[in-house]
Amino acid sequence: MTRAMVITLLACWCCARSMESALAFSALNVRPRVRSAHEQPRCRHHYDRLRRNCNQQKQQRRDQSTALQGVGIEVQSALSHMDAYWQAFPYTAAAIVCGIKASAADMIAQSSETQLHTLSIDDGNAVMTSVETSARESNSGFMPKSSFLPQFDIGRNFAFVVYGVLYQGLAQEHILNHLYPVWFGSGTEASVVMVKVAFNLLIQTTFVALPIAYIIKALIARDPLSTALGKYIYDIREQGLLTKCFLLWTPVNCVIFSVVPEHWRVTATAMVSFFWLIGLSIISSTEEAAPVDVTATTAISSVALADGKVMEPSMAAVENPSWISRKPSSVYARMSSPIVSSDQRQPQKETSLRR
Questions:
Q1: Cβ atoms of residues 103 and 157 within 8 Å
Q2: At what angle do helices 241-258 and 265-284 cross, to 10 degrees?
Q3: 310: β partners
């Protein structure tokens, strides 16, 4: 046991001495390298490149911040000029904004109606392809597919521009900013705001704003006023016009009469009514449901003669093509049945007689 301990201690002492000798040798032979004044470190070029990239990024950030500050200053300047113009010429600003808004809203509404109408008549035109081709070959004057597509209604768009300029622009500016403060007060308390909102929706919108829109459209289209009022009543009963109006404008008017400054109220109303006019334009242009023209469907379904030749379609089908989009299912069922001539039916009759 003692012998083993002595051997272990000697081994440890030898290891320690060898390590000390190695460290001393390395300290004597390894010296730090002394660089001359003109000598550059090996990674100096890499450091310079990183520094240049960092400086470039900093400069780009400064330029971007300067550009953003310039844009912000320009926007603030434009808004300040607009605010000054809105205060100096409130009626002109209201007329311009509301006129452009009404025209754009009706354009979007007509575009959406055209797309829906195109989708609704595509199947009808597909069903009538064979009849239409035969009619063209015989120069029968059958209406082409493009004639079923509705065109842009300039009169309708002009009617909404007039409505936007006269009522939503000029009249609203005078009513909201001159008459309402006299009638209900100019404060923003909850009681004052609720009275203004209730009067605006129940009285002004129901009996003035919406009827004026229908009347102006009827005048442009040269329709009698009774037709306009009847269409307005029909939309209230069948299309839920007032319900949609109240659901939209109740919260909007609460915000406008309580938060928005007076000279910006018409503009804020115009921003929201842009989407409302799209819906109003579609609702006011929705025609009442009409019965299917049985004469037209019968004329189209019986275009084959007894000898199997195609006849010219009757004028009832040409003058009234709307039955295609109204009741396509019955027409498709009738048109899908194969046309059998009298020559093809005769053997069936003879076979039945023989039986």
A1: yes
A2: 170
A3: 304
